[in-house]
Amino acid sequence: MTVSRLRVDAPGGAYEIVTGAGALLDPRSWQGVERDAVALIVTNTTVGPIYCGPLMDRLRPSFSKVAMLELADGEAHKTWTSIETIVDALLDHHADRHCLLIALGGGVVGDLAGFAASCFMRGVDCVQVPTTLLAQVDSSVGGKTAINHRRGKNMVGTFHQPVRVIADTDTLRTLPQREFVAGLAEVIKYGAVADDAFLTWIEQSLDALLVRDAEALTEALTRSCQIKASIVAADERESGPRVVLNFGHTFGHAIETGMGYGQWLHGEAVGCGMLLAAEASRLAGLIEVQQVRRIAELVRRAGLPTRAPSLGIERYLELMRGDKKARNGEIRLVLLTGPGQARSQPVEEALISAVFHEHEG
Amino acid sequence: MTVSRLRVDAPGGAYEIVTGAGALLDPRSWQGVERDAVALIVTNTTVGPIYCGPLMDRLRPSFSKVAMLELADGEAHKTWTSIETIVDALLDHHADRHCLLIALGGGVVGDLAGFAASCFMRGVDCVQVPTTLLAQVDSSVGGKTAINHRRGKNMVGTFHQPVRVIADTDTLRTLPQREFVAGLAEVIKYGAVADDAFLTWIEQSLDALLVRDAEALTEALTRSCQIKASIVAADERESGPRVVLNFGHTFGHAIETGMGYGQWLHGEAVGCGMLLAAEASRLAGLIEVQQVRRIAELVRRAGLPTRAPSLGIERYLELMRGDKKARNGEIRLVLLTGPGQARSQPVEEALISAVFHEHEG
Lengths: 361, 361
Fold this sequence. Notes:
2 copies of one chain form a homodimer. The model of chain A has no long low-confidence stretch (mean pLDDT about 95). In chain A, the strands form 3 sheets. The first copy, chain A, has a 7-stranded mixed β-sheet, sandwiched between helices. The radius of gyration of chain A is 20 Å and the shape is globular. Chain A is α/β, with parallel strands linked by helices. Helix content of chain A is about 45%, strand content about 20%. The interface of A and B includes residues 64, 87, 115, 151 and 327 of A.
């Protein structure tokens, strides 16, 4: 069993990403975060029954108390009610400021436990244990936490860096194919916006990734986390270069919100959103059609949706004007500017309309 | 009109405290925080009708839009529901990440607007405009934000430094005497835990303070903010020396929570709590009886309560075990260790019982 460690030097605190097959129960993964205090594992009804028992057995000797809380699964539960449930569980177990929250699950569990950790008693430690590909390559790293608001995804949240990320590739074995594929969208994103050589590697390795070849997975995970870690270290609060990691996300969030949370998986919306954003980049004169085709082809081969749902251009524009990155109602998009390069800029609504004209429905 | 500026060098960001008569509408107070974005003034139904109109007129030329939101007044409204009301108002006014929240009111408004600012779109700027003595000398400085939980005051919150604090002593003129007196508790606290010469000055100036003599008020405000700023700069997240600012607060929170929020004002509970904590310090052998008498005399002269309400010792101990500063259920108190000196330490429950035996009911 090989466990590799990658250091993230975020201004809000440095921490390690531990990756590898079997990392979840490897004692080395937990060294340095054990403490004489309560550990609360926040998980969901899908992942909890599989991994929580062995993990609690592993952790019990290292904490004064190990407890668990199973939340309902799905984006629809990323609400304040769930945060209150976590706070109640912490108080039930007499957790104090030295307690440790452990997020065991996908992005929803990670966002919820992370947000609860950032505001319980004004901030306690959190370990992210992502069990989906999406969470392993993206949401568990970087300290973003959030809950949804009926008027926008992730509208309320904080930046709160975890004290450790433990990404066990073995946990991906039980992941439904649809969710696995959704995670590939974020892997493709890293290549598109930051590393053209990695994008080429993904093109060559996509078939191996789709059958979850262990070696290909570890490589994809490591390179994705390296890219994310280096960008987060430079820009913890998304005021500068980190914004490129939102490639495909403005379109994606509009799709997710417009369809109602949970209809499209986040990664599916981002996959389609990257294709739309690539097309927008071409219409803005920033890239050639071949670069759009590379993205479109990867999205298609991965099995991600290539057409936006029929919501109507006006509805899309309304949703995008309300995006967190919008500025005085002016829509901003992350556009590709070349191979492995991207930037954020304001975009005319006419251009966005033209994109949907081609790719909606 | 004299406006003085005091700089706070918190690790989470440096900012200025602007104090003085007329500071609220003085254009210099707002220099550097104006922006081409939405400003939302969060206020309450008591203060809003008096100050909000002139403030909006003052700010309108400096922002793309100035809006206001009046919340119900009182500790009972420091809830997530109020945070959602603020988020809804921000979205109604198309506020984006560059917006500015302005907390115009007392500690409740400051805590709510501060917490909303810390998590709306993962963090936006906030200006604190405290209009009560308590908020001017304490809660507006230092970046603490919070909402209450039915099982504990300020149980959920964040550290989120304001970008400016504007404390206008003129706004204290309309403050009810009971609230004014409650604010004096925190002024006394600074002398007790950090500056014996200031405590002596308070003893000499208390009569002038009680009739709100402008000169005495400005001096009390300035020295209190200086003490708080220097302590916050050294310890933003209350892991070290900042903890002494909780002198009287563990007893005080127990009184507030035990009586139900809003029955005792925070400052009243802290005033009584300081007397109890001074007595605990004496029982622990840390200070002489004369030092207890100085605190007790100031609390009495200020008109703050000198006896704890009859909740029963068991109920008090239960509440204090759940305090945010407790460690594995062990009660910790800030105790006086000499003139202008204090530290936090674990305290036997028998000692706490002895304090209540003398001072309850």
